[in-house]
Design brief:
With 444 residues, the protein is of the alpha+beta class. The chain has two domains: 11-29 and 245-440, UDP-n-acetylglucosamine1-carboxyvinyl-transferase, Chain; 33-242, Enolpyruvate transferase domain (UDP-n-acetylglucosamine1-carboxyvinyl-transferase, Chain, Alpha-beta prism). It has 14 helices and 27 strands. A four-stranded mixed β-sheet has the order 24-25-2-26. A four-stranded mixed β-sheet has the order 3-15-17-16, covered by helices on one side. A four-stranded mixed β-sheet has the order 5-6-4-14. Strand 24, helix 12 (386-398) and strand 25 form a beta-alpha-beta unit. The longest helix has 14 residues, at 247-260. Bound molecules: uridine-diphosphate-2(N-acetylglucosaminyl) butyric acid.
Amino acid sequence: MAQTERIEGAVLTKYVIRGGKPLYGEIDISGAKNAAVAIIPAALLVDGVCRIENIPQISDVTMILNILQELGADVRTVNRTTVDIDCSHIRNAKVPNELARKIRASYYLIGALLGRFGSAQVPPPGGCHLGDRPIDQHIKGFVAMGAEVDVRGGFVNAWVKDGKRLSGAQVYLDIVSVGATMNIMLAAALADGTTIIENAAKEPHIVDLANFLNSMGARIMGAGTDVIKIKGVERLNGGTYSIIPDQIEAGTYMAAVAAAGGEVLIKNVIPKHLECITAKLVETGVEVEERDDAVLVRRDPNARLTRTNVKTLPYPGFPTDMQPQMAVVLSLAEGTSVITEGVWDNRYRYVDEIRRMGAQFQVDGKVAVIEGVDHLTGAPVRACDLRAGAAMVIAGLAAHGVTEVDCIHYIERGYEDIVRKLSGVGADIRVVVTPDEDKQAQVG
Ligand code: EPU
């Protein structure tokens, strides 16, 4: 007779959200994921101890810290949001396969190791599936600086010909790329001579990486504009640096208030970084008041939102990482809204999920046409990736009835304590752990 064997640890963890409750109170924003995942590898370039503050507690950060430890870094937790990292004893430029393949940001290890050792062996990056995610522009930069790069045996191998140090070079990026801009900055910080990156990305995390490196002794000018100049230095010294607040985490909670209604003070933000998001939410009828380091977001739960159009673009345009969350807001707006995804080829994988909740969504390539509905209805849905997962949570908060969000490991890659933060403003959201029926093997 067949028996059911329970596989240890085979559980499903979901968020269960009872929607329709407006949000009131305050939310504190954590440090920026996309800054942290570049600044932590940047510690490889530093000769001494880097104290990094305002680190978000998310799984992508845990993974990048684990990779540094496996390489031989001394990583010491000072408190919940602060670590000391000392990479001075590392002698190894080969990154272990299993860990690095799980996250996108492992590509920053190529620039950092190449800058430090003149060679790097790093597995091709993983991360969310948003369409083709090439790293040709990163490689173009390394090659211009005198590196050879090939992909063999499951690794991206990069090494400097005839010697150990990269040489400064002029690099024009054919496409505005956050990752390529930061990776070339990492490689160039200790290079021989000056590197100029033209058509550079301008995101707040690019400025943050430049500020981190400069505070350790680098000479980087122009970060935040489309031309960045990096004068290579001999050595970077240890120091203390605090990561900027997360623009996208803040934007996600702003969108949550827009969708569910209520009044929330979103604290520990840089309002300037949120302007691209604020402007669009204001067009839909949401009130946003800027304070010194906070924004107050208000939406009458009984008033309908107004339609608008959104095109995602590199900073200071509307961020692609806010596209799914904004789509949920527009699903509830009166009239027809159009979203054009200007960065990724395939960032609408969540449409089937949001349609289960009653959203009226048509997608054709990079364009989504949304007919606003009066309300969404709770349903079992899946987080397809990090931001799509956050969008499902927002939809659940606004919906009538109960929403169960599955595959929440994607969400926890980038949102610290999302359940606690939302519960703190009155949301009815719980983590529920159940045995995974599919993983109970039939034996005998
Ligand atoms: N691209 C190329 N060649 C390259 C690099 C990029 O063609 O060598 C293309 C990409 O295919 C894409 C566009 O350029 O169409 C922009 O890509 P970018 O390099 O800017 O993206 P990324 O560095 O891989 C980071 C964030 C993403 C965010 C994008 C855009 C990290 C770890 N990831 O990715 O964040 O969407 O910038 O702002 O910083 C997220 O946080 O959810 C997330 C996906």
